[in-house]
Predict the structure.
Amino acid sequence: MSEPVVSVSSELVSDCSSCFGLCCVALPFAASSDFAVDKDGGTPCRNLLADFRCGIHTQLRERGFPGCTVYDCFGAGQKVSQVTFGGRDWRAAPDTARPMFDVFPVMRQLHELLWYIDESLRIGAAARLHDDLARLRAETVALTESDATVLAGLDVAGHRERVNVLLLETSELARAAAPGRRRNHRGADLMGAKLSGKDLRGANLRGAWLIGADLRKADLRTADLIGADLRGADLGGADLSEALFLTQFQVNAARGDGRTRLPSVLSRPLHWA
């Protein structure tokens, strides 16, 4: 049986210093509570400097760009910049711009899948799936090392479906030991829900809408949170130390405090109380 991955690969952690500001250029955004202005995909953000740094990085929230402080690319930015395009930036080599911007969201999806696979490989209850997971991990890594043409034409949705089969099995195995009734809220509309202090251990919250939900002091250990929308959710004092498939992106979008317990592989956002 394959040895489980025991730590987060540095390749899956964003390193903006090695990226050509791809999230600031490739992605579109609309004027809203998250962004102060509209921006088309492929157009550089007005705050992007010549060296690919953000000109208002320390004031993003105050200047109306909290969405930028939430986003996480799972390390896709540096992979596309330094590996796929060999360190050639889109300003110095304009012919790389469009292919680079097209490849970036594909790479982000692949890196996100690697994040979930690596977590699955750390879950002892899913040990019987580890060999299959390791094979899919190797296949996914190989895809990330493809050239730009292959990546741009990749059927990411199809690959995600294959990975998701094992992620679902992993979730079932990991949640099976949770005490009491395991709640099924998959895809549920729980926007603004009053869930303070609730025992949600082992709950299925895949794809649930938890925008603005009150989850203070809730117990979310072994709850499956893959794809759950936690924007503005209050996680003050909540226990997510063993939550399944929780990402930095989700944590950044929520609100928490010094009592909120997170998995050891995630960081406490600077904007939290």
Q: What stands out?
A: The radius of gyration is 19 Å. Confidence is low (pLDDT under 50) at residues 1-6. The helical segments are 66-70, 76-84, 97-121, 130-144, 148-152, 156-175, 248-253.
